[in-house]
Amino acid sequence: MDSPGRRTASRARSRSPRTALTLAASALTALVTVALAAPATATAHPAAARTAPPPSPTAPHTGLVIGARTPARTPGREHAARTFLAGRHAVSGPAWTHHPRLPGSRPTTAAPRAGQVTHNWWGVFPQPGTHDGIMATHTVDPSYTVTDADNVTYAPTTKAQNSCMEVVTAYTNTGNEIWAWDWCGTVGPAKTVPIDDAFLKNYTPGNGGAAAYSVQMVRDDNAANRWSAYLYNYRTAAWDLLFRQSGTDQSGLDHGWDMFEIYASVDPATGEGYYCTEAQRTSFDSSAVQLRRNGAWKPASPSDSPWTDTAPDPNAFLCPPLKFVQAGADDHWTVHQ
């Protein structure tokens, strides 16, 4: 006579395949139900920015950027431009490695480190003699709203070695814009483009991924050091001219850059930079960074475009949750929370 244990085993082995499948399905359903009912124990970070393939650097160069204008001298934009310039002038040495704090307009009793604006950056620095052109694809977030006049996010922002302009994604409390900053003339924003519906329609691919525009800067006259900056128009499949300038680069730096840059002060309510809350769901991404040399375009690489810091400290950016992702071999980076 079989023992109870053996009888149970015998019955289990004698079940039909259909019965076994039914029981397995019931168990799986119960497991899924429990999992869905259980409270979440972690919050997923926003997905990395998805961008369309980069445009060809040799696509036709025709037309002018739609919506580009010579900016009005509004108090808000002038304040942001002065902050930008003060930060660059505070930088010491060609390596541009220290992260200074700048005098601000806040009373000293406002918050810890009040009266100071932290200036910090991270990305890649294309080195002298490695290029006479640069291009990249930069994400934009029209929903990111800056509330405080002393806080500005310039990200991504890019400049070639000795180029006459820097093309900046500028988030200020007066609105979000693309700037062509003139480094060989007025030393300020020479052209601005609002990040509005028209910009998104013409200069981002609209493929359902992260909104991103492509920028290209090239030196087209060596003797005059004349540079041209273009944005890629996805509707016409051509590069549109944003700004052209010649002369002597007055940035005081002999390398280029493609980077995330903040000017931030502490929000007394959080003890962190204002942008740490306001840009909590914003991903700052620069991809397909390429350099032109001797007429040929190649991806930025460790040999010509080193990282500014291989292990940046998010606390030095007044935003402890910030993550710095080296998404490519020096030709793609992402900053997000």
Automatic annotation (TrEMBL):
Keywords: Signal. It comes from the Bacteria. The keyword Signal applies. The keyword Signal applies. Residues 1-37 form the signal peptide. This is Carbohydrate-binding protein. The lineage of its organism: Bacteria, Bacillati, Actinomycetota, Actinomycetes, Kitasatosporales.
